[in-house]
Amino acid sequence: MEIEKDGKVSGYTATSSSSNLKKWTIHRKIATPCYQKLNYGSAGNIIRYKDEWILCLQTYPRTDLYITQPVRYGDGTA
């Protein structure tokens, strides 16, 4: 999900849940910072290891991307 702050576009990872896949809770931000140089998104696989669930995330930095500019996906540090 992207948000605007001072005209810049940044992303963070959010979560929601459903018991029937029809009705969902309102999303809530989880432990990823909203920072253009990280720009978390594109949740990958969720795996279970022993009694723990692990979520893999990718980052697509979009440094100096402003809401008035065309969309771009990642820079050379992705």
List the helices and strands and how they pair.
Layout: E1 2-5, E2 8-11, E3 14-15, E4 28-29, E5 40-41, E6 46-49, E7 52-55, E8 58-59
Antiparallel strand pairs: 1-2, 3-4, 5-8, 6-7
Describe the protein in words:
It is a single chain. The protein is mainly β. 8% of the residues are buried. It has no helices and 8 strands. It has strands spanning 2-5, 8-11, 14-15, 28-29, 40-41, 46-49, 52-55, 58-59. The protein is globular, with a radius of gyration of 15 Å. The strands form 4 sheets. It has a two-stranded antiparallel sheet. A two-stranded antiparallel sheet has the order 3-4. A two-stranded antiparallel ribbon has the order 5-8. It has one domain (2-59). The chain is 0% helix and 31% strand.
